[in-house]
Amino acid sequence: MERKLLMRDDVPKHLLASMQLHVGDAATQSHGLQALYPLAFDAPHRVQLAACGSLPLCVSAMAAHPTVLPLQQHGCRFLQLMAFDDDCKVAILTHDGLPVVLAALDRFYKDKDLAISSSDLLYFLVADLDGDDDKMQGGIASAIIHAVVRVMDLHGSDARIQSHGVAILNSLVANDAAKPLLCTDAVLDVVEQAIGFTDDATIDSIVLLFELFQDTTCQTLIVNNAPTTSRYRSSLLV
Which of 58, 155, 221, 235 has a Cα-to-Cα distance from 68 of 20 to 30 A? Predict the structure, then answer.
């Protein structure tokens, strides 16, 4: 009820107007995004929030203050909820939200809360992108894989991060440019590690491993890239 009243009274519009007047103040942007987050829980409110210009403002605030952890946390959480709406997801991508979210995960991967929200958001953003999409050009696939492998390895006991991570990697297997980058021991290690955490993580892991192991080019890459400590796995492919 309280959220409905806030939306009815145009509180988000006034809040966003205040944030636009103080774009250089990281604390103002952080607190503003923190206040917007609970309003995005309701699907109808997401449409209203998007219409107010909240998405480009959030992305630009995160891009302008990349080293401020609270702002990045609140920004990722807000975008995570907004991305449940397909139009909002497209808008986030249109306003170059993908590299901004990836940068937040890359910088603050040790922070579990940010790792959870940003990895979930990252999956929503990349899941439906084709390999030839402009948003996947310029080495972004390699950066995504590197960030995901690192965060899965560090937070190896967190089921949400494991589930999000393997879902992201699985979504990239159909990308011709990204698929060879998945054929490494580092990727295989975290994918195997994710098995058993959740039903989704287990299914995604098995599907991804099947796709990689049945691809002859990937088999060759795995064998050639494997260190001497991993020759047993490689021997199973030849």
Answer: 155
